[in-house]
Amino acid sequence: MKTGRHAGTFSQGGSRMTRPITAGVDGSQESLAALAWAAREAVRRDLPLRVVHAWRFQPQEVLEAGIEGDADSHAEWVHSAVAEAVRAVAEQHPDLDVTTDVLEGAVVDTLVTAAADAESLVLGSRGHGPIVGFLLGSVGQQVIAEAGRPVVLVRAGDQPSAEAAGREIVVGQQGDPEDSADALRFAFETAAARGATVRVVRAWTLPPVFAYSPGSLKLADEAGGLEPYEKKALTAAVRPWRERHPDVPVEEHVEMGSAGQVLLSVAGTAQLMVVGRRAHRTAVGARIGSVAHGVLHHADCPVAVVPHM
């Protein structure tokens, strides 16, 4: 087991606990890509890796997957398949501290619980594999909406080369400094571990006549107009993170347009996109915001969704 100072630590009952990077696996190519991404991140951050598979014995789905037997035989098969996935990671990163948990129960609840003790939860972004898993229907979105820790979505085919020097950590900033503090923290800490540049993006649009309060309009006038006002707002939000991470190069990007469109317009330079989210509760459950939803569906690089904590 590796030892040393871990960035992902928190206090519990007066003692220091280390948060792992947690990867959810379900046998799909997407989840295997997520596992590989999580392992590389754990090595960079000097953190342990926890591998979680959430399952529930469902005879019809097991039959459709071509697996025979009862719940016990299916559980044995699941353990074997997960162990095989973990073995490849362990061979590639022999010094990495890896633990594996195969947990039976409601999939969303199990993964949300696993995320609570994690530095971040890493999932495949779409599809499902021969082990009936967590990315069926809207389950992945429910996990993102309900998790209290950052969730990173990784597509199949993601390669380590995408993390090469010159590719940025792109993070969205909106509102007042505290509104995006958690997303900025995640982006700067990730960039510091990778030696990457952070591009902080703030999008703005021309407001309706009554959208801005008299106080906001006064501040905009004092700043010389709406665009200079937005630039000053972005600089103020980024300042504390520049001070905490003086070695991380920063690009401040202010552009007129919808937040989702502006973020996606610079996605080609990104090795990781970071967006904040506030879950919206509706009659049918939690929903993520439109910006996170759009970036998750259209960005080719991994996307981290960071809750406002």
Report what the structure shows:
This protein has helices spanning about 30-45, 60-65, 70-90, 105-115, 140-145, 180-195, 215-220, 225-245, 260-265, 290-300; strands at about 10, 15-20, 20-25, 50-55, 100-105, 120-125, 150-155, 170, 200-205, 250-255, 270-275, 280, 285, 305. With about 300 residues, it is of the alpha/beta class. It folds into 2 domains: about 10-160, 3-Layer(aba) Sandwich (Rossmann fold), CATH 3.40.50; about 165-305, Rossmann fold (3-Layer(aba) Sandwich). The strands form 3 sheets. It has a 10-stranded mixed beta sheet, with helices on both faces. Strand 12 and strand 13 form a beta hairpin. The protein is globular and about 70 Å long.
Characteristic key phrases:
two-stranded antiparallel sheet, 24% strand, 10 helices, alpha/beta, Rossmann fold, 10-stranded mixed sheet, globular, disordered N terminus, 309 residues
